[in-house]
Design goal:
This protein is an alpha/beta fold. The chain folds into two domains: 200 residues, Rossmann fold, CATH 3.40.50; 284 residues, Alpha-Beta Horseshoe (pyruvate-formate lyase- activating enzyme). The protein contains 21 helices and 14 strands. Strand 11, helix 12 and strand 12 form a beta-alpha-beta unit. The radius of gyration is 24 Å and the shape is globular.
Length: 524
């Protein structure tokens, strides 16, 4: 029997499902005789989820079900399930007014209810799909993967139907082997209810594949909801230029999910893919790489890509990305502006070079500033989002004042109205250096459940340790009271009022004799 593969993208925010699209495209190129269908529950009203999934299975009658689960996002920094999870948590933990604490507790219960409700709903949809598809093919194969599964694969194993293949990281090689009856023993996966995952499974390197331009003429044929993302032209459509991240940032799980080996997609293939979307009316692109320029050795690849975009004549596009701004050059800045970059995010985490070093970020903040000046000189006049994660390691009044100085310098370069500080508090995730540190320090106990939203677990996973934790709690609560619509800038203003602004030179220096915390020495 010729396999029939149904990809089910489980409900999430309306973000272009680039992972499922690339997976279906790859399988089509390897096995063109297969029949495939993409079904995107992100485009379906919630009350219709179950009925719509059942109808799709009745129509297509798959032999293989592939579920894509993108989000199990517990600690969002802004509005999310039932409101703002971070605000609710801080009101419970740090508010002095009992009525504010009560409001936070009620909001937290709404968040908890929505969170566990979504977990139950997605697990229920997987069971429903499997049960319904067995009417037509009793031996149907089920695979579950995606970003959420890659992070929480160990916990989900006991909750998914027995026999489900749980995929970690990239799924192209795994699915190809399943469809061609090859052994999957060497792939990053395991079978729920049959085996336990190998130790450190997520740290195994993904199988490299050669990426070519996605065939959107084919994708249109198998994905009826494709036009949903083209309506109005307001979506940023994802395009991937590389996979992998070579860095060791202490709290980030990208480097293990995607692997540390950076694999570049050929520039001509990326442009050919963009051209297909461009001809369908797309003008906004998001480069979905972990980092658009992960290291200086990849600058020539970025230059080649942007030159090819210019040569292709797509002069009226806009694009955005996560960018390590320490890896810019004047030539690259010029090309970014000419090709239409109108937004980018910098995840520097702290404006103190000392803390950047201790968090293993690999940034030189002085270089970042100079490169931002080059970008401004090249004509960039749009929005910059700067991600700050306060209180990760060794935060103290001096380093806060240094971060304020650094942020004000970025405002001097781009304009205060163009620099948007995004205030994060780290949600501690499995498989990161920060988790290892928390286990060794006794903050977390072995066998803890990282998917738990119970208060005694949540306070540890929402990383805001004392002695600075209460202080940040007070400042954030004050910012929400004073100006919730401009939370980030208000936090920076309040911190400056309390701690002042250090000399910029202090922010840019990191004395080698500074005390090294246990996290920094744990992995030497």
């Amino acid at each position: 029997m010729t396999p029939r593969v149904l990809y089910v993208r489980l409900p999430c925010n309306p973000i272009f499902p680039i992972g499922v699209v690339y997976l279906a495209d790859y399988i089509h190129k390897q096995l063109p005789h297969l029949e495939q269908r993409i079904f995107d529950l992100g485009t379906v009203p919630p009350l219709d989820f179950r009925a719509a999934l059942s109808r799709c299975i009745d129509e297509f009658r798959p032999t293989h079900l592939v579920f894509s689960w993108r989000d199990i996002q517990i600690y969002a920094p802004v509005g999310g399930r039932g409101g703002n999870p971070l605000q609710h948590a801080f009101e419970v933990y740090y508010a002095r007014n009992p009525f504010v604490k009560l409001r936070g507790a009620i909001g937290g219960l709404r968040v908890m209810s929505a969170y566990y409700g979504e977990l139950w709903r997605n697990l229920s949809l997987i069971r429903l799909g499997l049960h319904h598809a067995k009417r037509y093919h009793p031996q149907i194969t089920t695979i579950v993967g995606g970003g959420a599964v890659s992070v929480f694969y160990e916990q989900l194993g006991s909750q998914l139907p027995r026999g489900t293949i749980i995929s970690v990281g990239e799924g192209e090689s795994l699915l190809h082997k399943v469809l061609t009856d090859q052994s999957i023993q060497g792939e990053r996966c395991y079978i729920a209810g049959v085996e336990t995952p190998r130790d450190r499974l997520i740290h195994e390197w993904p199988t490299p594949i050669e990426k070519t331009a996605c065939n959107y003429s084919y994708i249109e044929q198998i994905w009826p909801e494709f036009e949903y993302y083209l309506q109005g032209g307001d979506f940023y459509i994802g395009v991937q230029t590389k996979r992998g991240c070579p860095h060791n940032c202490c709290y980030c799980v990208y480097t293990v999910v995607e692997g540390k080996q950076v694999r570049i997609n050929p520039a001509q293939e990326v442009v050919a893919e963009m051209r297909q979307l461009y001809e369908r009316g797309v003008r906004n692109f998001w480069f979905t790489d972990a980092q658009f320029i992960p290291a200086r050795k990849f600058i020539p690849d970025a230059i080649a890509l942007l030159r090819d975009i210019l040569a292709a004549g797509m002069t009226d596009i806009h694009w955005a990305a996560y960018i390590r701004a320490d890896n810019l050059t004047p030539e690259l800045c010029d090309l970014m502006v000419k090709t239409g970059m109108n937004y980018f995010e910098i995840g520097i985490t702290s404006g103190s070079q000392e803390l950047v070093r201790k968090m293993r970020m690999g940034y030189n903040l002085r270089t970042v500033l100079q490169n931002c000046r080059d970008l401004k000189a090249a004509g960039f006049a749009d929005l910059v989002s700067v991600n700050y994660s306060f209180n990760v390691i060794d935060e103290r009044p001096e380093t806060i004042a240094q971060t304020i100085a650094y942020h004000r310098e970025l405002e001097q370069i781009f304009g205060a109205d163009k620099v948007e500080p995004a205030i994060f508090f780290i949600g501690l995730q499995p498989h990161t250096h920060l988790e290892e540190y928390a286990l060794k320090a006794g903050i977390l106990r072995p066998g803890y459940n990282p998917m738990s939203l119970m208060p005694w677990t949540a306070k540890k996973l929402l990383w805001n340790p004392e002695p600075m934790g209460s202080l940040f709690g007070e400042v954030c609560l004050a910012a929400w009271r004073e100006n919730p619509n401009d939370f980030g800038r208000t936090v920076m203003d309040l911190l400056e009022q309390r701690f002042g602004r250090a000399p910029l030179a202090a922010a840019l220096s990191a004395p080698l004799e500074a005390e090294v915390p246990p996290l920094a020495i744990a992995h030497r």
